[in-house]
Amino acid sequence: MIDENGHALFPHTLTPISNLPAVGITAGEETYAIASRYLSIINHQLDLVCRYSPEFMVTFVNDAFCHFFGRAPDKLLGISLFSLYRAVEPELFCQHVRQLTPDAPYIVTERHAVAHTGADHWQQWCDRAVFDDCGRIVEYQAVGRDITNQNNMEVQLHEREERYRAIVSNAAMGICLVDAYGQFLECNPAFVQMSGNLPEELSMLTLAQVTCPEDWEEERGLFQRLWENNSTGYSLEKRLLTKDNRLIWTQAMTTLIRDPHNEPQYVVQLLEDISVRKEAERIRSEYADRLRALSLNATLAEERERRRIAQNLHDQIGQMLAIARMQLGKICASAGVKDTDLQQNLEETRTLLSEALDYSRTVTCELSPPILHELGLVPALRWLARHFSDRYHLPTNLSVDGAIPKLAQEERVVLYHTARELLFNVVKHAQASQAQLVIGLDDGGMVALMVEDDGDGFPRPAGTAGSEGFGLFSVRERVGQMGGSLDIETGSWGTRCRVCLPVP
């Protein structure tokens, strides 16, 4: 047997088994009792115990040894030790054990053995030399322990470690291990390639030195909280600073690894190169800005065209209708009162001209009310509310919530035509008895325009497929291109449409 320090429990001066008195030989009862107890202890050991001569011939085996090889003791005694352990190189083994001395009497080795069942086993043996009074080796005593499971576990752990290492080495994402100071402990090839530094160069750098300074200011607090047990990990987008001072956009996912005692060991950071995605987002943002600019230009061009048509209606058709009505009045005055039929026809014609002139003025204001450009958005909305009350018989009230900042032309135009479009929707679809128009600033400092009615509402929740017509779709697109939003609430109580635009 072997103690916890690897020393054999049998002293090197132990009397050889062959020299003990056998049963039937006259000897002292005390010597016989000691020998019997000694043999009983050895035979009940789970470890394998054997003795062999300096010529490596087996001289003693215990029960565990016999059971392992599946042979009776008389079939094992007298045979060569190397016939049982064929994988052992005799010359090398002899060289080791023959160098044992009383000061260094034992050697620990591992041997491959085949059990009687045919199963392969690994055993750890402590071979100890037994010396006579003159210091000569007279016998070897060996104790073996089966370490097959331990070896298998070590092999499995080694294979698992190799698999994990292969996964990390072949991963497309950059992977690095850093300590509490951000010093790199280990980096996979993908991270080495991303950073542009050699592995030995990275071992002299820290995480802060390969991160864009602006981004490290944000990451520093997150990294420190990991080691203060306030966080298990974090994820953020940051720029990796390469050796040649290029910046690579990455998605960094960071996790703290702890030991079995829950103490922090190191941090693992996975970095995915998202430069292509960031470039696509930049191009998409540029396209969105250009589209927004085109949309604003289209809105302003539409308003200019409305103003031009309105101006033409006012200056040309309106003036001609007004002059025609004046001329007709003169004809009525000169015709006299005798011809009643002619007088009636002239009055009817004059009435038609007056209605046409009023309609021309109404269309002019609907196309582009001069008040919008001359006095501003709030007066224009007040005129719009009065216009819908008078012309479409929809009582509409305007409420101004606080002071409205000075808006650019495009914001005024978009908000006015949005209110007009939403009120037209109320007239055409809601069957409402009244409408409310509210404008003000919301909590975020955006201009908020709300149109509310007490009509029928939508047949299904707004925003679902098929629930919005072209009018609402155009409003949503126009407002969205300017960075705003359209929110709709509807129910049996009516509909509330709320438009928000950022203030420049």
Give a quick summary of the entry:
This protein is 46% helix and 23% strand. It is α+β, with helices and mostly antiparallel strands and 504 residues long.
Describe the structure.
The chain has 15 helices and 15 strands. With 504 residues, it is an alpha+beta fold. The strands form three sheets. A five-stranded antiparallel β-sheet has the order 2-1-5-4-3. A five-stranded antiparallel β-sheet has the order 7-6-10-9-8, sandwiched between helices. The chain has a five-stranded mixed β-sheet with strand order 11-12-13-15-14. Helix 10 packs antiparallel against helix 11 and helix 10 crosses helix 14. The chain is rod-shaped and about 175 Å long.
Oligomer: single chain
Quote the average pLDDT. 83
State which percent range the strand residues make up: 15-25%
Helix content: 40-55%
Number of strands: 15
Structural class: alpha+beta
| Rg over C-alpha atoms, rounded to the nearest angstrom | 50 Å
Low-confidence stretches: 1-27, 461-466
Main sheet record? 5 strands, antiparallel
Terminal residue distance: 88 Å
Strand order of the largest sheet: 2-1-5-4-3
Q: What does the overall shape look like?
A: rod-shaped
How many helix segments?
A: 15
